[in-house]
């Protein structure tokens, strides 16, 4: 997947546009233009996209610097974690886009060279964000003091319990095998935005148990939610089934279910697609 060497202006514009496009789509259980939820509103995410863009797209910055800077700016602006997962996924993509050439190859190279400095910045960002259900780990715990491992090693340790960490070890394979194909299929089927984005979100949620739900409610509930979402994959989104999806949205939010990881991967997919385009 070839991409020219991209300047920070285009990278930043692609990132910001992807964050905003994800908000326009009806994503059951998540925050979107049709409904707020989980004590967060769309405006919080719009502001987060605005203030994190300069850090995410900063020329020459390491991946960890982009994540830590974006998270600090977000917390200062909205006072809560709205985009840690987005930053974790989009920062390596932004760095790879700067390198130019085949974007998938460049991304793999970026992920393979993440070091202890990146890990220190990412650990700091995670501690600041304090994501729900974080818990502790026997090794490479983000709250531990002392030397930190290379970021790629820390992510490998967390891969079994977190889809975003797993992506760091697979070259973002879910984006290339789930997200981008779902987006292409939605377009080929005649869908327009924002329904193409809804299709991407449902593809992730119906294929992979959402890590955010699993951390807060357990793996069994995350798998049950995946099965519920899989049943929605046959929906004719071209008919714009707003009422049906809003009913699912209300039910999942009433149960405290927020498939935030699926939304984060949706933003990363839209971002990568814009850079490739």
TrEMBL record:
PANTHER family: CITG FAMILY PROTEIN. It comes from the Bacteria. One of its GO terms (molecular function) is ATP binding. Gene3D superfamilies: Triphosphoribosyl-dephospho-CoA protein (1.10.4200.10). This is Triphosphoribosyl-dephospho-CoA synthase. It holds the Pfam family CitG.
């Amino acid at each position: 997947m070839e991409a020219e060497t991209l300047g920070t202006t285009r990278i930043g514009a692609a990132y910001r546009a992807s964050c905003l496009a994800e908000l326009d789509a009806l994503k059951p259980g998540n925050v979107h233009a049709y409904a707020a939820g989980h004590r967060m509103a769309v405006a919080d995410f719009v502001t987060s996209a605005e203030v994190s863009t300069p850090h995410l797209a900063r020329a020459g910055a390491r991946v960890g610097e982009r994540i830590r800077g974006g998270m600090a700016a977000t917390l200062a602006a909205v006072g809560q974690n709205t985009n840690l997962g987005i930053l974790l996924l989009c920062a390596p993509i932004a760095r790879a886009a700067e390198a130019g050439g085949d974007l998938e190859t460049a991304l793999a190279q970026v992920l393979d060279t993440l070091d202890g400095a990146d890990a220190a910045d990412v650990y700091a960002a995670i501690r600041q964000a304090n994501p729900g259900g974080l818990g502790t780990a026997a090794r490479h715990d983000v709250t531990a003091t002392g030397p930190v491992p290379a970021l790629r090693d820390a992510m490998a340790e967390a891969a079994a319990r977190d889809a975003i960490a797993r992506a760091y070890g697979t070259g973002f394979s879910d984006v290339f095998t789930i997200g981008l194909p779902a987006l292409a299929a939605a377009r080929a089927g005649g869908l327009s935005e924002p329904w193409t984005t809804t299709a991407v979100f449902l593809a992730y949620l119906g294929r992979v148990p959402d890590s955010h739900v699993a951390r807060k409610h357990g793996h069994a509930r995350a798998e049950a939610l995946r099965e519920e979402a899989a049943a929605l994959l046959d929906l004719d989104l071209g008919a714009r089934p707003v009422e049906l999806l809003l009913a699912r949205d209300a039910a999942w939010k009433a149960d405290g279910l927020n498939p935030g990881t699926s939304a984060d991967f949706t933003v990363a997919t839209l971002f990568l697609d814009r850079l490739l385009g």
